[in-house]
Amino acid sequence: MRNEILYRIQKNFPLTKRPFFKIAQELNISEEEVLKILQDEKKNNIIRQTSAILDTKKLGFTSSLVAFEVKEENINKAVEILNSHPGISHNYERNHRYNIWFTLAISPNSKTTLEKTVKCLANLCKAEDYIILPTLKLFKISVKLDTTNKQDKKEKVINKEFKTMQLNQIHLNVIKEIQNDIEFISEPFKHIIKKLNLEYKEFFTILKQFEECGIMRRFASILNHRQAGFNANAMVVWDIEEKDASKIGKIAASFSNVSHCYLRPKYPHWNYNLFTMIHGKTQKETNEVIKSIEKEIKYKSNLPLYSSREFKKTRIKYFSDEFKLWEDKYL
Fold first, then answer.
1. Which of 49, 111, 139, 150 is the S-S candidate for 253 at Cβ 3.0 to 4.6 Å?
2. Under a CB-based contact definition with an 8 Å cutoff, are residues 94 and 305 in contact?
3. pTM to 2 decimals?
């Protein structure tokens, strides 16, 4: 039952007044049982965070994956500087010449550009070299670890058509609240309703609008991969022909173990343009997924980049004053 609940809250979190009561009804157990399991898994650090997963670009932020080449003796200082930036949500060491990989987002109110921020960070970190790898095409982004061992190896990835939406102050206030981790209590949204002086109906209508416009990808729990038993997580990069990218990207994204799938630019010294993030419980399992993808797509070469150290993994706090404070200090 524990594993069913963990998968359920990753995939499709009920946006209702009492979401855990709804899950309990579906599984034919009590709300108290659901809450006890989730409270225990939070205490055990299995569940990292439960909140809205927002779309950086839709909120007006500029973002990119970035890779630094940093000498071993400079890594600790570089990590300290990188982790201080509020727009860096993920930061890993990987087994490559480019050894520090991070995602960077820049506020729409930034005094500079993403490229200039990366250059500033490279100087501060004493990086020998770096590459900026923005998303050219998104095929998939959906982290759902199969805690049940019952899910299919393939899944259908649906490309949604999104409406447009003009954000007002109420919307911004809601965004500031739903990006925070919720408590595992009977009414986890009650404090937001009270704070923003909204009715439940109005609140959930706004969340639905966010989903329809792509501002909120979904509301879900994210697990700590290693604590949840997924110890072999590789970023596998592929050298493919850009003219075939749409077809190849869709095939790679259809594998359930692939949580992220993007097309990114090539460089003279970096030939890989298709990026797939693959999660497995063991390196053998991850390698089997890689082999399965290899059989189905046309590619020139690939490179599995396993993370050796995790330096930072958190959610960006959108519209936070921290962005301005960081820029005032370093730019």
1. 139
2. yes
3. 0.92
